[in-house]
Every structure is written in C-alpha cells, then in structure tokens.
C-alpha cells in the first residue's frame, strides 16, 4: 500500500501554493481585517478559476471528483497563507454535495463552534444538527454579529428560518462534521509551518549580544519543540484524510485525533514564535499576528482540543 | 497561427544558487519555469486565441531531461514542447544556446512567431533572442510591451526610456516581451492534469546536427572568475547638535539636487 502523495497531488498543491503566495500575501490578509467582508475576493476568485474549490465536487457538475487526501493539501496551503475565506466549509463540505458552483461560498453552522465566520457574505448556509443537515440561502438567515480575536473572521450567531426541515440525513451531518474537523486541522498544520518558518528566518537574522539569536540554546529549544510537535501532528492529519477517503469507520476518531494534535502544535508554534520574536512579536503591525490570531480562532473552531480529546476518549474506552 | 515560445527552466530563485567548477550556475536539482518566460507563454496563448486558431509550441534547453518548468507552461495551455537535453550542451555560451533554439524553431516547422523574454532571470545575457533571429533570418523585434498581429503583420510597442516606439514587421519574426506585457494565468487543475499527456519531443544536439558547435567545444567565451559585488561603503554619521539640517542642505547642494 502506498501512503505517499502522488506527483499529481503535489503538483496541484504547488499550483495552489503559488497562487496564494501571490494573491494572498500578508497584505491581503491584513486588508481583510478592515474591508467590508473580512475576505480576500481576488484570491478566492482565482482559486475558483483554477478549479481548486471544485476538487471534491462531482465530475458531472464540472468538478474533479477527488478525495479528502487531495483537499487537505489545499487546506494546508490555505492555512500557510492564512487565507481569510471559508475554504473548508466550501471545498470539503458544500462543493462535494453540489451546493455551490464556481466562486460561490458556503459556511457551516456546527454546535461545537460557538459562532460561524463569514456568514454575512456567504451564498449558502448549512446547519449540522442531531436530525440532519439543513441548507438555506444565506440571505434567509438572521445574524447577530460578534467580535473575533482574528479581525478577518467576521463572526455571527446564525438563525435559520423556523420550520425548515433537514434535506440530508443525520449520517451526512457526521460526514460534514468530520470533513470540517479535518480541513481545519490541515489549516492549523499550515499555520504552524508558516509561523515556524517565519521565526526560524527571524532567528537567523536578528542579532543580540553580537550574535544571531538562533545560536542561543533557549531559542533553539523553543523552535525544536514546536517543530517536533508539528511533525507528529502532520501524519495524523494525513491519516485521517486517508481513512476518510477510504470510507473507514475509524475516520471520525482519526479526525478528532488530528484536530487535537494539530491545534496543540499550532498553539505551541504560535507561542514559540511570539516569544522568539521578542517585542516585535507584540506589535499588531507585524505579520506574525495574522497567523497567530488565525491559529487561536481555528483551534477553538469545530471543537477545541479538549472536546476532541473527550471524543477520542469516549470512542476508545 | 503557430507560435513558438522559448522557455528557460531555472533553479528556484528562492533558493540560494551555487556555482560549479567552471563558474557556471549549478542546475542539478528541480528546475522551474523562469517567471519572465511566463509572460511569453501567456502572450502566445492570447495571440493564438485572438487569431481564432493555431497552437503554441514550447522550446527549451535544459540538463537531465528536466521537464518541471515545461509542465507548468503546458499546464497553462501550450500544446506541445521540444526539449533539448544532452550532456554535450554543458558549457554552451549564448551563441551556442541560440543555435540550439534556432534549430528547434526549424524542427517545430511552419512557425509564424517566436516569442522570448528579454533576458533570463539566471543568465541575464539578453543576447539569445537576437542571435536566434539572425540565425533564422527573421527580423528581431525587442522589448515589446504590447503586441498585435493582423494580416500577416505584427505591430509592437517597443519600450524605450522616453516612452515607446511602434515597430512593424511581416511574419515570421522573433519578438521579445517585457515582464508585465500581460498577466500570466495560473495553471488550472484541468491544465495540470492534461499537461501529463501532452507530447514532449526530447532531442539531443546530434539530432539537431549541432554536435560539434555547442557545449564547451563550441563556446567562444569562458568565465574566468567570479567576484563578490563590492559591499556598500559606510555612510557619514553626523551627530545632530541642532544644526544637522545645515549639513543636509550642504550635502544636497553639493549634489546639485537643490
């Protein structure tokens, strides 16, 4: 059995990375903190044009009919860029069910997340509940705004119209939840990688006491700890994707393990990054904030690590 | 319309480059499409679209049968590629490279237009396109910032320091395009998947009849030494005792800026 990604999967990922490097540079993420929607419309349109959002959409509707394994590489690249868009909800959940086309976007309301990001600018809202999945046009929902630690994520309590019956069965709610958890875990891995890369670069450049700060053992330890945590979390994310794509019954368990570990890894990377950057890390004008705050927000979304640990515990005991 | 685009595959500029024993750039690892060539590829695709038909052929000379950069350009929409990869080509100078590429243009056959960047991002000689035009007995229209093709003629806006010149020629021609002439498209997922099945014609120097004229054997130039660019000199520091502005004014006057 082959576990490595295929050349084609990596080529698709590289194409997305390259696009995001240009269209979703930190300036674009920063702009989303103050623009109308909190989003990066140019990057989103380019991703749609490229076909990345339709990676799991059915081939009959112009999609590629690929699996979670292909999608997580894209989600990871989106995390690396801190792409301020509902890419997980759209690419992994709504598009495979044919609920969005081209550059449309969807957001998913889940009981495990206190609020839903970008519900005001999405086209479609999905709710996951104990009796199934409901799909409603976003314009029919009523919204109450909340403030997020991540200025790009416009958060809302979402209420769908009364009397709306589930269109998809309860089993689909479980599928959607797993995919959302998996995609968010992949984004967290991408964020951790970005913060670690930024910090290693900084430690090689910044001098104190006449030497690069990367030569200090205390700095090395922080970075090595963060790297170790990340390299142990990443395979869990890839395994969860593989079991989900194979329809394995352990997929939900694996997704929760991945989310808990990816969240821990990204939080630890954020903390190490903040500390190793010294005072500059505390200034909001510095790009690190964009990635740290996205990390904190995503770590708490789709169930925080404590929720997922409880879930794993209940499953295996 | 048949457009040929010269495509160079270069080491990733994000990775620090290294020189080999002959003072030439090491090209052992994965090579990528030179960004300056992506403008030529995009321009070619747009011109073929505008002409209502035809195809784009890529030509490239690279070591180790490298196709990564070509794949990117094929994924953008080019139809096929000719790749010249041969250990005998190592050490080729600009003229040697031009000979190889000119033979590729002939091999492609029925070419209306050859597009290239003004210069590569790793070699910067900027001489290959004009040499190639001479070898092919085609006019060379360089530094195009705008290109139009109609009725067997091409009209370009040639970038100058003061603005631009309008230059016309009959096809076939060699045209070099500046960065920013068009906005290169991103390869789509469909394009990336299709690129795998597009034909790449792999040839050697001998196949092109150039065995003795290229590589170290044919090179008329050699790189005898490489030195670091001089470091910037330290500036003059002036403590401001309240009259610092006078020093600045004096300095600017000396430069005849004010």
Structure notes:
The complex is a heterodimer of chains A (317) and B (258). Chain A is mainly alpha-helical. Chain A has a domain of 146 residues: Butyryl-CoA Dehydrogenase, subunit A, domain 3 (Up-down Bundle). Chain A is built from 10 helices and 8 strands. Chain A has a 3-stranded mixed beta sheet with strand order 1-3-4, covered by helices on one side. In chain A, α6 runs antiparallel to α7. The longest helix of chain A has 36 residues. Chain A is globular and about 70 Å long. The two termini of chain A are 29 Å apart. Chain B has 258 residues and is of the alpha/beta class. In chain B, α3 packs across α4. Chain B is globular, with a radius of gyration of 22 Å. The N and C termini of chain B lie far apart (56 Å). Chains A and B meet through α1 and α3 of A and α5 of B.
Features:
heterodimer; A: 317 residues; Butyryl-CoA Dehydrogenase, subunit A, domain 3; 3-stranded mixed beta sheet; 3-stranded antiparallel beta sheet; globular; B: Rossmann fold; 9-stranded mixed beta sheet; 7 helices; 28% helix
Task: Describe what is shown at a glance.
The complex is a heterodimer of chains A (317) and B (258). Chain A is mainly α and 317 residues long. Chain A has a domain at 171-316: Butyryl-CoA Dehydrogenase, subunit A, domain 3.
């Amino acid at each position: 059995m082959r576990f490595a990604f295929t050349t084609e999967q990596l080529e698709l990922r590289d194409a997305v990375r390259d696009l995001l490097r240009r269209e979703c540079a930190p300036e674009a993420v920063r702009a989303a903190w103050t623009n109308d929607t909190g989003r990066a419309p140019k990057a989103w349109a380019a991703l749609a044009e490229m076909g990345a959002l339709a990676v799991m959409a059915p081939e009959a509707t112009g999609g590629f009919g690929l699996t979670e394994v292909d999608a997580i590489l894209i989600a990871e690249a989106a995390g690396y860029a801190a792409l301020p868009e509902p890419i997980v909800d759209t690419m992994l959940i709504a598009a495979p069910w044919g609920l969005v086309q081209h550059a449309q976007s969807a957001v998913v309301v889940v009981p495990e997340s206190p609020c839903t990001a970008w519900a005001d600018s999405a086209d479609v809202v999905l709710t996951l509940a104990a009796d199934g999945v409901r799909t409603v046009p976003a314009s029919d929902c009523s919204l109450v705004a909340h403030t997020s630690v991540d200025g790009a994520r416009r958060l809302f309590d979402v209420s769908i119209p009364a009397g709306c019956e589930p269109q998809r069965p309860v089993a689909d709610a479980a599928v959607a939840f797993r995919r959302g958890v998996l995609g968010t875990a992949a984004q967290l891995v991408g964020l951790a990688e970005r913060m670690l890369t930024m910090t290693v670069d900084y430690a090689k450049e910044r001098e104190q006491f006449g030497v690069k700060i990367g030569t200090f053992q205390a700095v090395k330890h922080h970075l090595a700890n963060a790297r170790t945590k990340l390299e142990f979390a990443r395979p869990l994310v890839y395994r969860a994707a593989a079991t989900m794509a194979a329809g394995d019954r352990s997929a939900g368990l694996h997704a929760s393990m991945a989310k808990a570990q990816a969240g821990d890894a990204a939080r630890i990377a954020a903390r190490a990054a903040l500390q190793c950057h010294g005072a500059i890390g505390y200034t909001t004008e510095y790009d690190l904030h964009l990635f740290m705050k996205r990390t904190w927000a995503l770590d708490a979304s789709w169930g925080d690590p404590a929720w997922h640990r409880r879930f794993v515990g209940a499953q295996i005991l | 319309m048949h457009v040929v685009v010269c495509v160079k595959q270069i080491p990733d500029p994000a990775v620090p480059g290294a020189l080999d024993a002959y003072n030439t750039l090491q090209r052992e690892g994965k090579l990528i499409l030179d960004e300056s060539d992506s403008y030529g590829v995009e321009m070619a695709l747009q011109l073929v679209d505008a002409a209502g038909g035809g195809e784009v052929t890529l030509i490239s000379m690279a070591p180790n049968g490298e196709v990564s950069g070509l794949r990117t350009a094929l994924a953008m929409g080019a139809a096929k590629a000719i790749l010249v990869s041969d250990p005998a080509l190592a050490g080729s100078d600009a003229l040697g490279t031009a000979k190889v590429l000119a033979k590729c243009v002939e091999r492609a056959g029925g070419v209306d237009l050859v597009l290239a960047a003004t210069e590569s991002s790793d070699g910067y000689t900027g001489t290959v396109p004009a040499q190639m035009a001479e070898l092919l007995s085609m006019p060379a229209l360089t530094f195009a910032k705008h290109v139009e093709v109609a009725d067997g003629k091409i009209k370009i806006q040639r970038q100058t320091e003061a603005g631009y010149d309008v230059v016309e020629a009959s096809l076939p021609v060699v045209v070099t395009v500046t960065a920013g002439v068009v906005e290169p498209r991103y390869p789509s997922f469909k394009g990336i998947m299709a690129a795998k099945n597009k034909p790449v014609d792999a040839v050697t120097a001998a196949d092109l009849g150039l065995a003795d004229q290229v590589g170290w054997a044919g090179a008329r130039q050699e790189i005898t030494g490489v030195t670091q660019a001089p470091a910037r000199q330290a500036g003059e520091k002036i403590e401001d005792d309240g009259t610092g502005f006078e020093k600045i004014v004096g300095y600017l006057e000396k430069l005849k800026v004010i």
